């Protein structure tokens, strides 16, 4: 398309060869339309390389139309080689050398150009081929890296899915056994069994979290069961799954405050935030829920050392924060779940400590 446009512009400067330039422009536009046809997507991997042959022929015609001036031919020859290097293997680049050389030399010979001009082909063609081979090498390395990353990603997704399913199956048996033991157990044992059941449920939710990561990566979305719930009840239920004492947590939730959320996903969000607050922060931890315009704002604030400014913006990115106690997925899942609700998640500095904030759209 670019070559055709330049040929049309050239008609204004060379009216004596206007008919030839018009023919060149028509050929260029025809090649451009053929090149963008959807049928190439169904063709063989190397089939589009045949487009280079008519492109060389049109370049030769262009040189002849300009009376043997190869000023515009050389750059387009290099451009065709660069395009081929990005998409095809090196043997095709080597196959291009004879037709490209003929497309460059024949018009110069027909228009009786001096030997110095004809000899420029022995400079241009090696340079065009060298540039193409360099581009092809880099493109090949990038394709190999991309294929390797795709294989790693497939392996990771399969591993996470298998791990999550394999964990949930024995957990179901453990839960049934614990519930059966509760039937005739004395009160002290019942309390221990209840604690074990809560942790079993917690492990099951962790397995579901792994499946959530897989669903988010593969589908980009999650199915939510959105309903209006009393905020205080939701928070207290989540606290039952976190190892803490009543003195560690302060609730600041209005009596009539509600949240329009998926109950299970909200619990997953709050448990993640509370776990981080107890692990990296310091008590007391303050959990508050307030209405701000059309959004409800959940805030989990600790009184620890806080988070460095340079880390705060990337805190909710995947694998951005990890170490011996985690792999950096918890806060990323929190943000993905918040976004799935239509809200967001971010960190705000406090003195002392930090506040993890999650917003949810208010009930319609």
Automatic annotation (TrEMBL):
One of the Pfam families matching this protein, by short name: HATPase_c
Superkingdom of the source species: Bacteria
Broad enzyme group: transferase
GO molecular function, one term: kinase activity
Catalytic reactions of this protein: ATP + protein L-histidine = ADP + protein N-phospho-L-histidine
Entry-linked SMART domains: HATPase_c, HisKA
EC number: 2.7.13.3
Sorted UniProt keywords: Kinase, Membrane, Phosphoprotein, Transferase, Transmembrane, Transmembrane helix, Two-component regulatory system
Sequence intervals crossing the membrane: 21-41, 61-84, 91-110, 116-135
InterPro entries reported for this sequence: HATPase_C_sf (IPR036890), HATPase_dom (IPR003594), His_kinase_dom (IPR005467), HisK_dim/P_dom (IPR003661), HisK_dim/P_sf (IPR036097), Sig_transdc_His_kin-like_C (IPR004358)
CDD domains membership: HATPase (cd00075), HisKA (cd00082)
Domain Histidine kinase: 162-364
Subcellular location: Cell membrane
Name of protein: histidine kinase
């Amino acid at each position: 398309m670019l070559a055709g446009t330049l040929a049309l512009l050239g008609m204004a400067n060379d009216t004596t060869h206007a008919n030839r330039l018009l023919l060149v422009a028509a050929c260029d536009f025809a090649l451009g339309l053929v090149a963008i046809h959807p049928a190439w997507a169904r063709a063989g991997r190397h089939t589009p390389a045949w487009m280079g042959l008519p492109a060389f022929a049109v370049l030769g015609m262009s040189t002849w139309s300009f009376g043997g001036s190869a000023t515009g031919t050389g750059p387009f020859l290099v451009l065709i080689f660069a395009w081929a290097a990005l998409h095809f293997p090196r043997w095709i680049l080597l196959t291009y050398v004879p037709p490209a050389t003929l497309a460059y030399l024949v018009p110069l010979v027909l228009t009786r150009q001096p030997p110095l001009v004809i000899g420029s082909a022995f400079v241009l063609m090696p340079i065009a081929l060298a540039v193409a081979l360099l581009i092809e090498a880099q493109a090949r390395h990038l394709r190999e890296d991309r294929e390797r990353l795709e294989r790693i990603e497939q392996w990771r997704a399969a591993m996470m899915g298998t791990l999550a399913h394999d964990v949930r199956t024995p957990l179901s048996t453990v839960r049934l056994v614990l519930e059966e033991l509760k039937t005739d157990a004395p009160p002290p044992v019942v309390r221990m069994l209840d604690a074990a059941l809560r942790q079993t449920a917690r492990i099951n939710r962790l397995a579901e979290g792994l499946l959530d990561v897989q669903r988010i990566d593969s589908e980009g979305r999650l199915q939510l069961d959105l309903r209006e719930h009393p905020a205080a009840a939701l928070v207290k239920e989540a606290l039952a799954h976190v190892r803490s004492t009543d003195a560690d947590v302060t609730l600041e939730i209005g009596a009539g405050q509600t949240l329009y959320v998926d109950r299970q996903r909200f619990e997953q969000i709050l448990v993640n935030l509370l776990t981080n607050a107890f692990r990296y922060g310091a008590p007391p931890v303050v959990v508050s829920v307030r209405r701000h315009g059309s959004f409800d704002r959940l805030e989990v604030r600790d009184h620890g050392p806080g988070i460095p400014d340079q880390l705060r913006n990337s805190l909710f990115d995947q694998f951005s924060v990890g170490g011996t106690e985690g792999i950096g997925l918890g806060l990323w899942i929190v943000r993905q779940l918040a976004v799935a609700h239509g809200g967001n998640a971010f960190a705000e500095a406090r003195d002392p400590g930090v506040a993890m904030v999650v917003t949810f759209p208010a009930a319609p």
